[in-house]
Automatic annotation (TrEMBL), chains A, B:
The keyword Kinase does not apply. One of its GO terms (molecular function) is DNA-binding transcription factor activity. Residues 26-45 bind DNA. It comes from the Bacteria. This is HTH tetR-type domain-containing protein. SUPFAM superfamilies: Homeodomain-like. The keyword Transcription regulation applies. Residues 3-63 form the HTH tetR-type domain. Keywords: DNA-binding, Transcription, Transcription regulation. InterPro entries: DNA-bd_HTH_TetR-type_CS (IPR023772), Homeodomain-like_sf (IPR009057), HTH-type_TetR-like_transc_reg (IPR050109), HTH_TetR (IPR001647). The lineage of its organism: Bacteria, Pseudomonadati, Pseudomonadota, Alphaproteobacteria, Hyphomicrobiales.
Length: 200, 200
DNA sequence: GTCTATATTCCGATAGAC
DNA sequence: GTCTATCGGAATATAGAC
């Protein structure tokens, strides 16, 4: 399955950490999932903290690479924003390990880990969305907050998906990434349909 | 400080659980924070699971009570929606224990706890927001998803606040609940400014 | 590089005195 | 209702054989 034990450990740890949280997962749990002894983990990593950092790095690094290529194709700003929403919704909906570790870090990460998270995951997409928003927000509006809202509404949709089936009127359609994507794109189109600063 | 030890234990537990997560907090930690012995906790609660459930109930119950009164004053649908956004932003920004436990439950809660969370926290506000949205969304749009997006964008804004200072252009202004409230209200106004179904 | 075996600390939980 | 004392087990981590 894996070329080396070290990678297998990291991927097993990432999966368990995303499901249960760091402190709920023991080194024994990770070792059992890989099929090695707990002592083996301490040959590859100094301790649990290092394993957590390596697992985060493995899951977060290069996550935005596919975004770069995607946005070099579409030229129109509207199309780029819609392509971004599609990309983000599907990323969060389909890579649950990434999504859950992301939320855990936003909630629990210390200053150092949050800065690492910002650089490796958020900085590129955020800068991009902010530049797309800045040409379209109305005077007096904050393009920084607009970018946070665009990313935030997708994040919120995915997180609230956990209780959709318990809310009145909720059905499985509301968990479909394509349905969510279309909804968010339509909402943003309304939100940004005023004359852009560029046209003024 | 507290009338009874039981309440003190519950509040100390809620605070620690929200900061560190359930499994990272031991019964000893809670006991030390209260100033009693660990054995005392087992006189008031059957075990850690019961303490977790009681802490959640203490933090989540009656959280939406203030919303009811608030919305009986304002009559206009626009004003009600804006009052809701103001209420939710300030609730999530100012009651960090509530906010963090909420996110933890959305991420980690089992089916039973998620249903409990839905009923005690989300059902009333969600139904309300959905009814406000349903009169204003355009034909073909889903008022359920619109309500999820309205709640979701606020939740996303608050969660992404953890990394705002690490993002290019971020400053403390973007963490101010009043600034976030104004931004979200302005964005929703754009989003919903098309002719309502009512007017058609 | 992986194992067996173990040291040490901490955990949840209980018994019983006061 | 709160305490002291403690049990059995599980946690992180290490030592050393293979």
């Amino acid at each position: 399955m894996h070329h080396d034990t070290r990678t297998a450990i990291i991927e097993a740890a990432a999966s368990l950490f995303s499901d249960l949280g760091y402190s709920a997962v023991s080194m024994r749990d990770v070792a059992n999932k890989v099929g090695v002894t707990p002592a083996n983990l301490y040959h590859h990593f100094k301790g649990k903290d290092e394993l957590i950092r390596e697992a985060l790095a493995h899951v977060f690094t290069h996550k935005t690479a596919s975004l770069e290529a995607l946005l070099n194709v579409n030229q129109d700003a509207d199309e780029k924003l819609e392509a971004f929403v599609h990309w983000l919704v599907h990323l969060l909906a389909e890579d649950k390990i990434f999504c859950r570790l992301l939320v855990r870090e936003l909630t629990d990460g210390d200053a150092g880990r949050l800065e690492y998270l910002s650089k490796t995951v958020f900085e590129r997409p955020f800068t991009l969305v902010r530049s797309l928003a800045s040409t379209r927000v109305r005077d007096g509006e904050d393009d920084f907050l607009a970018a946070v809202s665009i990313i935030g509404v997708v994040l919120g949709q995915v997180q609230l998906g956990a209780i959709v089936r318990h809310l009145p009127g909720g059905c499985s359609d509301h968990l479909d990434p394509d349905v969510i994507t279309r909804h968010v794109i339509a909402a943003l189109r309304e939100c940004f349909k005023t004359t852009s600063i560029k046209d003024a």
